[in-house]
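quick one, two chains, predict together pls
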Amino acid sequence: MIGIVDYGMGNLLSVFNAFEYLGTEVMICKKPEQILEVDRIVIPGVGAFKDCIGRLKGEGFVENLNQVVLVNKIPTLGICLGMQVMAKKSFEGGIHQGLGWIDADVIKLHPSENYKIPNIGWNEVTCNQNTPLFHGLPAKPDLYLVHSYYMKCNTEKDVVATYEYGHKVTAAILRENIFATQFHPEKSQDNGLRILENFIKWEPECQKKD
Amino acid sequence: MSKKRLIPKLQLKTSSFDPNRMVLVITRQFNEVIEIGDAVSQAKIYQDQGADELIFVNIDRVDKSIDKLAKIIAKVSEEIFMPITVGGGVISENDFRTLLSNGADKITINTAALNAPDLIRRASEKFGAQCVVVSIDYKKEGQTDNYRVYTNNGTVKTEWDPIEWAIKCEELGAGEILLTCIDNDGMKTGLDITNTEKLVSKISIPVITSGGCGLANHFSDGYLLGNAEAVSAGTFFAHRDQNFMQTRSQIKNSGVNIRIYN
């Protein structure tokens, strides 16, 4: 069973519908205790970082998330803001502490040329072909992004996909059982659905050992 | 750089035969309205043909029910996995929330933004700039070179110049502008490239331009001469004899960095 964390922000329905469409069991976790019942976690998110972490803390999700993600190490997917919130800190509208699962900062896109911000649209994302989550995709699939901030990782090997927007932008990260994307797989048509399908089947190395 | 986007616009109104149902329509200069079919099945066709996004707008002048609109969007989002922009009758943050929680990704506001510009700021702070799309409908002032913004589906004239208004919208926190030239709407004679190009050079948020596409090279002009990030069209795609994929190839061949769907 996949659990989608509902902390009262963002478009959960699209993510929920995408998993339903793929024929998998999925539930929306409105209460922190529901997180303990599922074997895969999805953290979606659209909006501002401060509200996102504030609600995760305020609604009491953080403790259970830390338990299932960091201790039980169940497969975890963060999408867009759900990815960014995994960082140590964000510089969006002040400085805010994140969940701290990934050694990274969330900073504003900083292209030197005349690029538009937010970046809205389809971009050719260069994916690490050895990543099981990208199985069956072309080397540079078009994926849909909409964001002004991005995750700048301090550990280069956590980054498994990037795209160019005047500078290199982190498009996806993978660390043990945590996979997260800046792009929206649930909005990226066939390429995106393929990634979600891969996530449903994914058995992280760290989990296989025990 | 993001690829240029090609966006079918699905205009809706309450069916003249069934008040509980919203149907797909096409328009000409915002006046003549022709009912042409079902929005959900048309959206599926667009998805199969590789549209980059979809815009749904309720253009009914009487029935502005957000719930009715939300119902259609909920249905669409069960099967459509691409970005969806929704609008028509949105006047409050609550309307934003209703549509977003039913599967919309971005909300377009038009009349309400002009009546109460503060809505742009509040929605942008609450839901993020990326989901606030201000739709600007404008028309030429008689024989002059002046243009004015219109509200209420092009029926009420304001004193705003479209470029000035767009700059104001960006200041207030809009994430994108959907520009529509009323004079060109449904005429298939081409986009208003002059004003598109002028607007794109004045603001730093993305511009979707629309109104007037009748040929593949009208789209190309919008991207290459107008410098728009996206071009939207309703009438053009709604006519079944237009092949979406062929249009896209023609646009690509003219040198536009656009996605080719495989």
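Residues 66-77 of chain B form the longest helix (12 residues).
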